Amino acid sequence: MLIDSNAVFFDSAAVTSGEVSGNAVGLTSLMKPGRAEPIHICAKVVEEDFSGGTSIDFKLTQSDRESGSYDDVPGSAVTVPLAELKVGKIIGWRFLPAGVTRPWLKMVATPSGSFSAGRIFAAVVREESQPWEEGMYIDAGSVVG
Fold first, then answer.
1. CB 3.0 to 4.6 Å from 122: which of 10, 29, 37, 75, for a disulfide?
2. CA 104 → CA 24, 53, 81, distances in Å?
3. If DSSP codes are grouped into helix, strand and coil, which group holds residue 105?
């Protein structure tokens, strides 16, 4: 997967006890990014499993300016329970939601409870990050895994 450092919301960011807002990502060449061709987004748990809290709410916010006031993207909220916050878990979206109508985006993570471990990566990416799962790999005609 190719990653542009200008399109990264979180890079191994810890989400422990308070709301964490990611970096602003500019999609300034698009009038309504969520209505363009599908734009891939990758958000996943990295480095270590989460432990301690009960869940994390993720949402996208948008603005007309990088340093402007950010509003929630309609329909972008996703809640992930602790049991699913394991390394490799893909969070929420495959593509930018249709509600993304402004050129600047941020991702916000709000934990429920106090976490002692756990990190996330999130970015707008060029291609989809869909790793192989059990039963998807065939070797010499036999399904492996």
1. 10
2. 6, 30, 28
3. strand
Sign of torsion, CA 128 130 24 47?
negative
Q: Which of 11-20, 63-72, 131-140 has the lowest mean pLDDT?
A: 131-140
From the number of C-beta atoms within 10 Å of its C-beta (0-12, 13-18, 19+), residue 59 rates as middle
Is 0.90 surpassed by the pTM of this model? no
Q: Quickly count: other Cβ atoms within 10 Å of residue 145's Cβ.
A: 10
Instruction: Assess contact for 35 and 101: CB atoms under 8 A.
Output: yes
Q: How far apart are CA 101 and CA 63, in angstroms?
A: 9
Whether the CA torsion 76, 91, 95, 18 is positive or negative: it is positive
